[in-house]
Amino acid sequence: MIRMEKSCGSPKCDVVKKGKKIGHMDGLNVIQWFLKNRYRYTGTFSRFITKNPDDSHSGIKIDIIIPEKHLIIKDACIDWMKSPQNNGTFNAKSIESYENY
Fold it and tell me: How far, CA to CA in Å, does 2 sit from each of 30, 36, 60, 83, 94?
């Protein structure tokens, strides 16, 4: 049984790779699904801007921080990105809350 549990979004999020901020995402939307007895997290973004162009590609593993909701989307993998707008989709392993980052 597939069931959509929750969704959230943010106009602007920070993107972190190996503990260092590499850029930001605009227009982020995340959906939490319950499928085959576990939660899955999928999302979309309208723009992915990085400081280094080499960090902006499909297959990159990142953490996405939503500051206004105090959430971290952990181990997100970019599925695909469309150039030149750099919009695309991702899958994540988990979502965690935090106090300060």
Answer: 16, 8, 27, 32, 18
Q: Measured over all CA atoms, what is the biggest interatomic distance in the chain, rounded to whole angstroms?
A: 41
| CA-based nearest residue to 72, from 37, 30, 26, 11 | 30
Would you say 11 and 45 are in contact if contact means Cβ atoms under 8 Å apart? Answer: no
What's the CA gap between 52 and 7, in Å, rounded? 30
Alpha-carbon gap, residue 65 to 84, rounded angstroms:
23
Q: Tens digits of per-residue pLDDT, 11-45?
A: 999 999 999 999 999 999 999 988 888 889 999 99
Q: What residues are paired with 55 via a beta bridge?
A: none
For 98, the token pair is 């935090």
Q: How many residues does the chain have?
A: 101
27: left (phi over 0), alpha (psi -120 to 50) or beta: left
The residue-averaged pLDDT of 65-87 equals 91
